[in-house]
């Protein structure tokens, strides 16, 4: 049984190109393990950027045919998407090699460091990145295992979702969607928000309550989120954007000018005066993310002024309001938003940028889309201004045995019934042509979606056609 990262030396990842898997693979390589892996997206004689970047780190990459697993392999890691019928799983069992889930391995890694686990339905990747930047600026030399690539690390030629520092602190994302968040016993547990996404609210409340119980030092809560506030352990450790509650850390005076936001953060639990923050980002939700990161950093000894200095140069993360550019009076922005709250927040963040926002969304998974249908319609319709538009293409299907009993057009029909300017274009390749009569002289085209590995390429195609 694997309980520590000292229990193995040679580890193989099945599905190594996945965001969560590649992050752990890079981290383990960075701490001296022999790492290899395979992925169904690796094909002979076909370029693959993720594969190339992993190999540049010294991680051997194989086709998903079993050849990468040998007698030297002493641990095999699988993601939740990998089934027992996969050839490599069968081979690992034949060789009696231990097989563990990604979440179990991440828990073992977290036990080897002083860990800050960032939890919540929305904002985990951004907050983790901001916190990493703050701790790094403070000279603490942190490590990070993230669900998205940090632009600052991507610029080093890496995937960007992991980095090994020589300091004591490790920042990780704690995922509630598969329940793995309950596996961690972090020194600091951070709860950003609780919204219906992969699970019903009552299930999520139980999961996050266990997360709270597992946290050993500071459990930090966003008190301006009603459901998260219910799990507060100590207001002195909490943050809020509401002036009339008793959280110790507050953000106020929000302002957005173009692609820059500014606000103040105050720690009312001490005599420290407020610190002004300026970040090259958009949306009130990013003020909350920055407030969360600054709060945690302050609780472990980093002054708010240092956090403010660090975030002045924050460069963002991959596909989180990523600005592709402006062409023919249209700003093109690519975003990972994929649940109702994230889609609404993403649309609202773009509204100060232009008189009209045209949002396009590709839902993923028939089951999740059906589960969240009412919530999507409610949140998106509330976010849209009278002049804004929402467009959708057909649901992304990753394979499997899903029942295809819902279409994106069903959501569009519901949105139209609420008075929204809503449009369905089944094939996303027809999107730009369909949009041409809808563009104005002051316009943002916002692309939203997740899980589909071709979305980055789609954004590039849209840019070329604008």
From TrEMBL:
Domain Mur ligase central: 118-297
Domain Mur ligase C-terminal: 319-451
InterPro entries per the UniProt record, alphabetical: Mur-like_cat_sf, Mur_ligase_C, Mur_ligase_C_dom_sf, Mur_ligase_cen, Mur_ligase_N, MurCDEF_pg_biosynth
UniProt keywords, alphabetically: ATP-binding, Cell cycle, Cell division, Cell shape, Cell wall biogenesis/degradation, Ligase, Nucleotide-binding, Peptidoglycan synthesis
Domain of life: Bacteria
GO biological process: cell division; cell wall organization; peptidoglycan biosynthetic process; regulation of cell shape
Domain Mur ligase N-terminal catalytic: 13-113
Signal peptide: none
SUPFAM superfamilies: MurCD N-terminal domain, MurD-like peptide ligases, catalytic domain, MurD-like peptide ligases, peptide-binding domain
GO terms for MF: acid-amino acid ligase activity; ATP binding
PANTHER family given in the database record: UDP-N-ACETYLMURAMATE--L-ALANINE LIGASE (PTHR43445:SF3), UDP-N-ACETYLMURAMATE--L-ALANINE LIGASE-RELATED (PTHR43445)
UniProt protein name: UDP-N-acetylmuramate--alanine ligase
């Amino acid at each position: 049984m694997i309980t520590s990262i000292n229990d193995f030396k040679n580890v193989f990842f099945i599905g190594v190109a996945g965001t969560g898997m590649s992050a752990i693979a890079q981290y383990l390589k960075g701490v001296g393990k022999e790492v290899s892996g395979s992925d169904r997206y690796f094909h002979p004689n076909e370029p693959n950027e993720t594969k190339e970047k992993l190999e540049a780190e010294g991680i051997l990459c194989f086709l998903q045919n079993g050849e990468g697993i040998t007698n030297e392999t002493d641990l095999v890691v699988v993601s939740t998407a990998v089934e027992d019928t996969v050839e490599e799983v069968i081979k690992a069992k034949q060789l009696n090699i231990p097989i563990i889930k990604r979440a179990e391995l991440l828990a073992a890694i977290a036990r080897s460091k002083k860990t800050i686990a960032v939890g919540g339905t929305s904002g985990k990747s951004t907050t983790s990145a901001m916190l990493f930047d703050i701790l790094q600026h403070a000279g603490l030399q942190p490590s990070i295992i993230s669900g998205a690539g940090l632009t600052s690390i991507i610029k080093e030629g890496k995937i960007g979702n992991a980095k090994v520092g020589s300091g004591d602190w490790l920042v990780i994302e704690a995922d509630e969607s598969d329940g793995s968040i309950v596996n961690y016993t972090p020194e600091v547990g951070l709860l950003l928000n609780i919204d219906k996404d992969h699970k019903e609210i009552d299930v999520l409340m139980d999961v996050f309550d266990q997360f709270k119980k597992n946290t050993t030092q500071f459990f930090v809560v966003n008190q301006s989120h009603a459901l998260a506030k219910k799990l507060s352990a100590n207001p002195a450790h909490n943050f809020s954007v509401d002036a009339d509650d008793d959280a110790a850390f507050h953000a106020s005076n929000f302002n957005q000018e173009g692609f820059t936001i500014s606000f103040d953060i105050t720690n009312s639990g001490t005599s420290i005066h407020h610190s002004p923050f300026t970040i090259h980002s958009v949306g009130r939700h990013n003020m909350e993310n920055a407030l969360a990161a600054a709060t945690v950093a302050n609780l472990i000894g980093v002054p708010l002024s240092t956090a403010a200095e660090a975030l002045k140069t924050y460069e963002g993360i991959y596909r989180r309001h990523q600005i592709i550019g402006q062409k023919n009076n249209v700003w093109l922005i690519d975003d990972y938003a994929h649940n109702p709250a994230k889609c609404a927040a993403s649309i609202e963040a773009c509204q100060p940028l232009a008189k009209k926002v045209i949002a396009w969304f590709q839902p993923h998974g028939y089951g999740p889309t059906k589960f969240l249908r009412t919530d999507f319609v409610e949140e998106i319709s509330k976010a849209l201004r009278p002049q804004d538009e929402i467009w959708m293409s057909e649901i992304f299907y990753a394979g499997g045995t899903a029942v295809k009993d819902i279409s994106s057009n069903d959501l569009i029909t519901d949105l139209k019934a609420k008075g929204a300017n809503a449009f369905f274009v089944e094939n996303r390749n027809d999107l730009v042509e369909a949009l041409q009569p809808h563009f104005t002289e002051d316009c943002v085209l916002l692309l939203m979606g997740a899980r589909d590995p071709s979305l980055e390429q789609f954004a590039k195609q849209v840019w070329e056609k604008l």
